Structure formats: structure tokens, C-alpha cells
Amino acid sequence: MRLILPALFLFYGILHADIAWYTGYDEAVRAAKLAHKPLMLFLTKPRCKVRGFMQKDVFTDPEVAAYIEAHFIAADIWNDHESLPLKYRVTASPVFTFLDADGDEIIEQVVGGKPPSRFLETLHSVIDDNPQFR
Length: 134
Description:
It comes from Sulfurimonas diazotrophicus. By secondary structure, the chain is α/β, with parallel strands linked by helices. It has helices at 4-15, 25-35, 49-58, 62-71, 116-128; strands spanning 21-22, 39-44, 73-78, 95-99, 106-111. It has a single domain (18-133), classed as Glutaredoxin, CATH 3.40.30. The protein is built from 5 helices and 5 strands. It has a 5-stranded mixed β-sheet, with helices on both faces.
């Protein structure tokens, strides 16, 4: 019985994982610094069709959502948002820009969407390839 209850809570937590998205660059960087987590910028344009796919099919995947929540501070920002520094603005959409916890250094950039399993591999590689985040 002692093992069943924690397992149920873990299973419930994975099934109901939800991503806390920041919508401003500055507040996301502050949160990343406090949490000592890398920053994942989801940079898109208003008419990006892949944005809908990522929101509907990828970010709702329990494993993807749980991994993002555990390892990243996530920010959903328009490419041309006034809070986004010019050096991070891009013309493609979507672009995932992974930054260090201070928001200074680009760790990795990924252009386009991916299905949940492939996006999860990308997330793992960002963490696994950068010892400062383990």
C-alpha cells in the first residue's frame, strides 16, 4: 500500500502536467535566474500553422509537458515582441531558442515543429549536452 499511493500521485502528476508559459522576455529571464533553469523561447508569428500543431499536439503531451516544467522556464513570445532583444528575433516561425539561465547565451536553436517524441529528444539533448543544467 505504501508504494501504491506515491505511484498513483506520480502517474496523476504526469497525466495532468501543464506548462507555465511566460509571455514576456524579461519576466521569463527573472524566473530562469531564480530557478537556475535554462530558458526555452517559443518564438512564432501570428499566422504560423505549426504553432497550432505544437500547442495542440506537442505541448499537451504529458511527457513533453512534464519535462519542460521540470527542466526549463518556458516563454511563448511573438518574434517581434517589444520585450524580445533584437539579437534573438528571427524571421522563421516557429523557432525554439534555448538560452542559459541568465538569458545571455544561446545553447541551441531549433527551427520548425516536431512530433512529441522527437521534440522530447531535443529537450533531452539540450539538458544532457550541457552539464551546467544537470
